[in-house]
Design a protein that fits this description.
This protein is an alpha+beta fold and about 180 residues long. The chain contains four helices and six strands. The protein has helices spanning about 15-25, 45-60, 125-135, 160-165; strands spanning about 75-85, 95-105, 110-120, 140, 145-150, 155-160. The N and C termini lie far apart (about 55 Å). The model is unreliable at about 170-178 (pLDDT under 50).
Length: about 180
């Protein structure tokens, strides 16, 4: 009789970061079974499974072949999956926390987490902070100080339905593209 010691594959600050790692490294498929024992979070296994499925679907359709010449250029965020309030109580009606999972033009994937204890008062305030956290500022002209700070075209917001009650038209439902 022998017992093998289990090995931790990944430690992370958020479930979204673990999901990004699992998806990016090809460990997730539609048949993947997620077990979190013990579960130290308020997030249910069903919510984790749904998140991983959405991450996989979102980044699968963005699966890109890296063009060698792109590696000579500064990397740019090409796809952005923004998870809002996943681990906050469902009665919270403001954006309190955000995990932004993104892929860049070099094929690298990252996760950035930030929070605001008293919440964001508007979608515009939140988006400004998101752009700042992601350093989304591109210089438009090499000799002039002209910048653009837009979210990538391929951006998806993933959030509980309770947020749509607070922000109305800003959040039409879970999985909004901004």
């Amino acid at each position: 009789f022998s017992m093998e010691k289990e090995e931790t594959l990944k430690r992370a600050r958020t479930i979204e970061e673990i999901g990004a790692w699992v998806v990016h490294n090809g460990f997730y498929s539609e048949n993947t079974i997620i077990n979190l024992v013990p579960n130290p979070t308020a997030i249910t296994v069903d919510e984790i499974n749904a998140l991983f499925k959405h991450l996989h679907t979102f980044f699968l359709k963005d699966d890109q072949n890296i063009i060698f010449d792109a590696l000579n250029l500064k990397e740019q965020i090409t796809s952005l999956f923004v998870s809002l309030n996943l681990s906050t109580p469902r009665n919270i009606k403001q954006i309190i926390e955000c995990s932004a999972v993104y892929r860049n033009s070099w094929g690298e994937m990252y996760c950035v987490f930030f929070s605001k204890q008293d919440g964001f008062n508007s979608m515009d305030d939140f988006v400004k902070r998101l752009k700042k956290e992601l350093h989304l500022k591109k210089k438009l002209h090499s000799k002039k100080e002209l910048y653009i700070d837009e979210l990538p075209v391929n951006t998806l917001f993933y959030f509980p339905k309770s947020l749509s009650l607070k922000f109305g038209n800003d959040f039409a439902g879970s999985g909004l593209r901004y």
